[in-house]
Design brief:
Length: 356
């Protein structure tokens, strides 16, 4: 079944065609990074306008790259939540119109569940799908339950996964998301935009031992798997004063600051994740979201030989339409349909704990 997947929740205008939930026939991502770089962050109104302008050519390109005409599309999947409301509405409205005009099955999906699905995608018959993990990708998930680590610009979730649409949140951030911390620190230091990839790149030549940022103190009670980034973010930004005062000092080299920040940012995730592994006895971990591209996170999780870690290939870590099409296929194959009255939602309801 050929599913057209559409993603417009933030700053990537994306569409893809995926066959049977796993074989990616095309994956087109039109990034708005050059637009938002000028402001060092995503400007929601500019994002919506660019989506409105680009959505038609992006879908046309996805069909062309798949070698298919619109008549070959058998179902439409789209991200409806969470994200920037105006941006979501562009993709959602387009997807509804496409499905309605062609009388196709239609499903609106959750963006974070789509990130969780991303490692199950395969681009071609011979490209391995589990970077940093083992075994080939396919529509078949590892046996449920397993652990999920979903880390993006807006969310940090550690969960027990019972099904493609059923996760139990064990921990989440009590303040900023992991990706947001990378973005804000990079913005303050002028390291580049978007911040996660900029810090990851800079950190490669830095000494992570130069600055010692403290870990958040979140050991108690129900907080065992929660994470917090506002303390680290503030500490890194306070350090900026020193950086500005003596930018040429080896101590203040940007690479050292990036490496030290990144080490602590990753340790915060690992501490909660490894605790969840130990407490639950679940040793398969699926990682997804933009921060899953982080080289240190990938290396540190993969180091644990007692854990089977499954990362998406880099091209499916960030926002893309293929993960939406893949997840959408699972719902549609089960017979689920969304009504055309479904609307977008900026947040998931009661998102701190129960999800979705
Ligand atoms: O999933 P995503 O593309 O969009 C959202 O759903 O938010 O995630 C974007 C986030 C941004 O905060 C970006 O800085 C971060 O993922 N990111 C990274 C890396 N690449 C992207 N964070 C750390 N290291 C990276 N290599
Ligand atoms: Zn995302």
């Amino acid at each position: 079944m050929n599913i057209l997947g559409i993603e417009s929740s933030c700053d990537e205008c994306a569409a893809a065609v995926v066959l049977d939930g796993w074989r990616v026939l095309s994956n087109v991502v039109a990034t708005q990074i050059p637009i938002h770089r000028l402001y060092n962050g995503v400007v929601p109104e500019l994002a919506s306008r660019a989506h409105a302008e680009w959505i038609t050519p992006v879908v046309q390109e996805a069909l062309a790259q798949a070698g298919l005409g619109p008549a070959a599309v058998e179902g439409v999947a789209v991200t409806a939540r969470p994200g920037l409301l105006g941006s979501l509405l562009v993709g959602l409205s387009f997807a509804k119109a496409f499905a309605w005009a062609r009388n196709l099955p239609f499903i609106a999906v959750d963006h974070m569940l789509a990130h969780l699905y991303a490692p199950r995608l395969l681009v071609s018959a011979d490209s391995g799908g589990e970077a940093g993990g083992s075994g080939p990708a396919s529509a078949e998930p590892p046996a449920y339950p397993f652990l999920g680590l979903l880390v993006s610009g807006g969310h940090s979730i550690i969960c027990r996964v019972h099904g493609f649409d059923n996760i139990e949140v064990l921990g989440t951030t009590i303040d900023d998301a992991a990706g947001e911390a990378f973005d804000k620190v990079a913005k303050h230091y002028g390291f580049g935009y978007p911040g996660g990839a900029a810090i990851d790149g800079l950190a490669r030549t830095g000494d992570p031992g130069v600055f010692r940022f403290s870990m958040p103190n979140l050991h108690k009670g129900g907080r065992r798997y929660d994470v917090s980034y506002s303390g680290l973010k503030t500490a890194a930004i306070i350090n900026l004063e020193q950086f500005r005062a003596k930018p040429d000092s080896p101590l203040e080299r940007p690479a050292n600051i990036a490496a030290s920040f990144q080490r602590t940012a990753v340790e915060i995730l690992l501490r909660s994740l490894f605790r969840a592994v130990e407490d639950t006895g679940l040793t398969t971990v699926v990682i997804g979201g933009g921060v899953a591209a982080n080289s240190l996170l990938r290396a540190r999780v993969s180091e644990r030989k007692d854990i089977r870690s499954i990362f998406p290939p880099l091209e499916f870590c960030g926002d893309n339409g293929a993960m939406v099409a893949g997840l959408g296929y699972q719902y549609l194959a089960r017979g689920d349909r969304s009504p055309l009255t479904v609307t977008a939602s900026a947040r998931v309801s009661a998102f701190k704990r129960p999800y979705p």
